Amino acid sequence: MPVNVLSQATEGVPGLLGLFLITIPDCLPYQSWTKEDAGLFFEDAVSHFGDLVRLNRKKLSAIESQIEEIQITLEARDRLTILRDLSPDFVLACVFDRDVPLGIIRIHYRQILERVTAQLPTGPAHPAAAPDVQPRIS
Prior knowledge:
The chain is an alpha+beta fold. It contains three helices and five strands. It has a single domain, classed as Beta-Lactamase (2-Layer Sandwich), CATH 3.30.450. 30% of the residues lie in helices and 26% in strands. Strands 2-1-5-4-3 form a five-stranded antiparallel β-sheet, with helices on both faces.
């Protein structure tokens, strides 16, 4: 996956605060993009996002539901986060400003999914092969 694919996927998306690409099942960071002043740090959330998707897969599987394309929407007072399986190896988390209408978020989210999915590597994910994660400096 090219290093700049996440930043390319963000072009023209209103209210987008961050994109996080996570490997599954190990919940490791693969790539990230954050708006400069968003105050988001990938390493703080990555394992929680991956665990949330993994647990939902298990729960849906237990009730014999289809689990090919899980999408989870988390709504908070200031942010809206959407998590989605892109493949058996990757989950994409998108964080939006809560002031953006949900319909607009869904339209842009579909475009982001198309852009990112087209660039995913095939085969098992290897986070060390192309990490683009910015470390947090305290």
